[in-house]
Specification:
5-stranded mixed β-sheet, single chain, globular, 22-stranded antiparallel β-barrel, mainly beta
Length: 741
């Protein structure tokens, strides 16, 4: 058996590839002129087509043809009137993706890792809207997160990542308007036994051992075990991390029509927190003492910690009653325990009223959280296929339920860091020294703060939703999708220490509609309308529930599937708004007058152009604007941290049929346009462009690979928020040796 992430001879015919990589890339972008044979005298080119179209993978190559995310049914992406992208396992392997955010850096309309790499959670901005703590799913059910109680999936355990851009509340309930990121887990493969083992070593003393095994117990029972252990440092001195990950699964075919797949996972992180909160002056702009080095730890590494244990157990059940009716159910229970202590820069001491002749010292605060999160999700779907005349229907009806319960302890008031040996509250990031005796002070009283001063809080959220969707196809060409949903949500927050309690309940209807026309030449124009809602967990001055954020999207697009090679080309024009955004007035009372509108165009190309050449390219151009705000000076401006221009291109070439057979070279570049630190467009964060590259060599079942991110080791500020800025990741080189059988 060939190495897992190399295309199999069973699916492609290897020819002599005579054309250069540059020529092939140019031809791949010229969609209308590419053909399997450019002229009668040219040597025969290989046409790569995917014979498999499993909506949950595995995929062979870069193109994912089907997806369950957009419609919760097995509908080809080319016939779906929505913008959908798939990052396949092969893409993640070729780029050595170390996180979900890293895997999405070559996907249209996504700002990923915009704070730099963070081991607490993955950060995304999709179509100009922040998705933090929301919009992340695994195997179709929500990864419920809140605050620091955030799940982070390891990419080694994933088969693919699917992205549905734009509002998705009709199928998923409360959700931000940017879209849905759905992580598809690796799972057992019936009728196939396999194994994969890999060792890695990389920058910052990164060491990893990975294992992926699977096989059959009987003809109807298959199993799989995915596991890894990792230790690594970071760009910041003395900030280190460890991770253990285990994901066993089993799949049982009770009959040809009935399947049960049980998925479990366990992940333990024992780390220092990565994310560095830096003063703007000294990172984005030069301080009189210069710039703060990007390897300086703002906190005390020996004091800080981030310990997280996350575990999940769930299953997917499907039963086909007959050729027309089938039932599917997805269920998962998850539990997360965290213990976090992280220091951050409050600001320069002299700006905060402290006497500091050097003007170099800063004051530091502490983020602290310790507690447990438990969540449960269940999604039940009944699918009925029938015809009314020449109209083919796929009718989906479903009921889903979500529950999240968090109990935690934290310091309710701001905490000031001090040196217990000297009593000093100063820290000089330009000439750092670290105390072995950290004490916490109340900045108002100056008294010591201990664990006894922690406040205990509880948070509980429920969502019950019912949805109905009809996908209609007329004459194998005209596709119409209509959907409607009702949700009943309730969120309760209580501070046990202050006896403060708030309960927010919302009942919301959402709708969606889409139309596509599928031409025989591979072109599919489409148009869609979709709505979203997201509860605002606040009360007004009369203790009434805040109205949820609401909005809608209008989108028109064009998809193209060439007949001559395995590829997908997409263009989309969209307009999304978000209303009822919450703020407070001078008296502290809730106001909901905020509104943002984002208009943009996306261009995406994903193709296995030949047996050797794979390509991903995309560009996004947006106009994001604050329409209403309590501060009239913000109206007409771009929201903070949102880039209006994004672009990336990645090409990977494998040599076949020559003395270089087994060699593969991948080269990519990504661009993020300028952003602003606040809603008033005064502090601009410059744009940046980064280059990535990979070289690998495969012989028999063994593969050696060296992957480099930020190849030119560019030093840059990735984003700023208010008075804090964050450095982006420096060059990261990962070498791996893997063996598959």
């Amino acid at each position: 058996m060939l190495l897992k992430n190399q295309r199999m001879d069973a699916f492609v015919s290897h020819g002599c590839i005579k054309k250069s990589l540059a020529t092939a890339v140019i031809m791949g972008l010229m969609v209308n002129s590419v053909s399997a044979n450019t002229n009668e005298n040219s040597e025969q080119e290989v046409v790569v087509t995917a014979e498999f179209s499993n909506p949950i993978g595995p995929d062979f190559g870069y193109v994912g043809e089907n997806s369950m995310t957009a419609t919760k049914t097995d509908m080809p992406i080319s016939k779906t009137p929505r913008a959908v992208s798939v990052v396949t396992r092969e893409q993640m392997d070729d780029r050595a993706s170390v996180s979900v955010a890293d895997a999405l850096q070559y996907t249209p309309s996504i700002q990923a890792n915009f704070y730099g790499e963070d081991n607490k959670q993955d950060w995304f901005v999709i179509r100009g809207f922040n998705q933090a703590n929301n919009g992340l799913y695994q195997d179709g059910t929500r990864l419920d997160s809140a605050g620091f109680y955030t799940y982070q999936a390891d990419t080694f355990g994933l088969e693919r990542v699917e992205i549905l851009r734009g509002p998705a509340s009709v199928l998923y309930g409360q959700n931000p308007p940017g879209g849905v990121i759905n992580l598809i887990s690796k799972r057992p493969q019936h009728s196939e036994s396999f194994g994969f083992v890999s060792v890695e070593y990389g920058s910052n003393d990164r060491k990893q051992l990975s294992l992926d095994l699977g096989g059959e117990i009987t003809d109807d029972v298959a199993w799989r075990l995915v596991a890894l252990g990792r230790q690594n440092g970071t760009d910041v001195d003395n900030i280190e991390a460890e991770r253990i990950y285990l994901a066993p699964s089993v799949s049982v075919n009770f009959s040809d029509n009935t399947n049960l797949t049980v998925l479990a996972s366990y992940q333990k992180d024992d780390s220092d927190p990565y994310l560095q909160f830096l003063p703007m002056e000294g990172s984005l702009t030069e301080h009189e003492n210069g710039f703060i080095s990007d390897d300086v730890a703002i906190g005390n590494p020996d004091y800080e910690k981030f310990e997280r244990t996350q575990a999940a157990l769930g299953y997917e059940f499907s039963h086909k009653f007959n050729e027309s009716v089938q039932f599917a159910q997805s269920v998962r229970y998850s539990q997360l325990d965290i213990d976090l202590k992280q220091m951050y820069a409050i600001g320069y001491a002299h700006d905060l009223g402290q006497t500091d002749p050097t003007e170099a010292n800063i004051l530091r605060g502490l983020t602290s959280e310790k507690g447990k999160s438990k969540s449960f999700s269940a999604d039940n779907r009944l699918i009925y296929n029938f015809n009314t005349g020449e109209l083919e229907h796929t009718l989906l009806s479903g009921i889903d339920y979500r529950w999240l319960d968090i109990k935690g302890q934290s310091f309710g008031d701001r905490v000031l860091i001090a040196d217990g040996n000297t009593g000093s509250i100063f820290f000089n990031p330009y000439d750092p020294s670290y105390t072995d005796n950290v004490v916490l002070l109340n900045p108002t009283t100056g008294l010591l703060v201990t664990d006894a001063d922690r406040e205990t809080t509880t948070s509980e959220r429920h969502q019950l939703g019912g949805y109905l969707q009809d996908q209609m196809i007329f004459n194998d060409a005209l596709a119409v999708t209509l959907g409607v949903r009702f949700d009943d949500t309730k969120s309760t927050y209580e501070n046990k220490s202050t006896n403060k309690k708030q309960v927010v309940s919302n009942q919301e209807w959402t709708k969606s509609a889409g139309v596509a026309y599928i031409f025989e030449n591979g072109l599919t124009p489409y148009i869609n309308y979709a709505e979203h809602f997201q509860p605002v967990l606040k009360l007004d001055k009369n203790d009434n529930s805040a109205k949820p954020e609401r909005g809608n999207q209008f989108e028109v697009g064009l998809k193209y599937l060439p007949a001559s090679f395995d590829g997908s080309f997409n263009a989309a024009l969209f307009q999304i708004n978000k209303k009822n955004m919450a703020t407070t007035d001078a008296a502290g009372d809730l106001l909901q007058i905020g509104e943002v509108e984002n208009t943009g165009i996306e261009l995406e190309a994903v193709a296995n152009i030949t047996s050797g050449l794979s390509l991903v390219a995309n560009a996004t151009f947006m106009d994001t604007e604050i329409i209403k705000d309590i501060n009239s000076a913000n109206v007409g401006n771009r929201p903070a941290q949102v880039a209006n221009t994004l672009g990336s291109v990645w090409a990977n070439y494998r040599f076949f049929g020559s003395s270089l057979e087994g060699l593969a070279i991948g080269v990519g570049g990504r661009y993020v346009g300028e952003t602003y630190a606040g809603n008033i467009e005064t502090t601009k964060v410059p744009d940046f462009a980064l280059m990535d590259a990979t070289v690998s060599y495969t012989i028999n079942n063994m593969k050696i690979q060296v992957a480099a991110k930020n190849l030119m080791d560019k030093e840059y500020v990735s984003t700023c928020a208010s008075a804090n800025c964050y450095y982006g990741n420096r060059r990261n080189v990962i070498a791996s040796l893997s063996y598959a059988w």
